[in-house]
Amino acid sequence: MNLNKAQLIGRITNDPEMKALPSGSPVVKFGLATNRVYKTKEGEKKELVQFHNCVAFGKLAEIVGQWAKKGQEVYVDGRIEYRSWDKKDGTKGYATEIVVENFQMGAKAKGSASADEGRGSAPEIPTIEVSDGEIRSEDLPF
After folding, report:
1. pTM of the predicted model, to two decimals?
2. Tens-digit pLDDT profile for the chain (142 aa)?
3. Residues with Cβ within 8 Å of residue 67, at least 6 apart in sequence
4. For residue 30, is it within any domain?
5. How many domains is the chain built from?
6. What CATH number should be reported for the domain holding residue 32?
7. How far separated are the first and last CA of the chain, in Å rounded?
8. Which residue range(s) make up the domain with 84?
9. How many angstroms separate the Cα of 18 from the Cα of each of 7, 43, 140?
10. Is residue 1 assigned to a domain?
């Protein structure tokens, strides 16, 4: 039995970067920050922040690219993938990414206007599930 599953709730650290694969299929890359609050033995409250690289493909990439913004709270569900490549300087590059298969938006970025201020209510953003396709890690443009 095997399982490769990641579920994260956090805030987007940068506006999603939209690109296209050589096939023309859309791909979006974004960072996600999660935090954990804990107490030390001395009772001092500490916060540990982790940063995750996320990537989404196809229709899901289009939705993330159109609606998600820096500071937006999101839920992502996907799998963990490790990539390596040869850099131009001859060294090896490595990346660990969450390949997003499900995505839901939560609270807006702090300080952003509410969805119904001046423009009516916001359209409902669907949750999309993505099945494995013909996308190979070497096709990724980043």
Report:
1. 0.73
2. 999 999 999 999 999 999 999 999 999 999 999 999 999 999 999 999 999 999 999 999 999 999 999 999 999 999 999 999 999 999 999 999 999 999 999 888 776 554 434 334 444 444 444 444 545 555 555 5
3. 105, 125
4. yes
5. 1
6. 2.40.50.140
7. 32
8. 6-139
9. 22, 44, 11
10. no
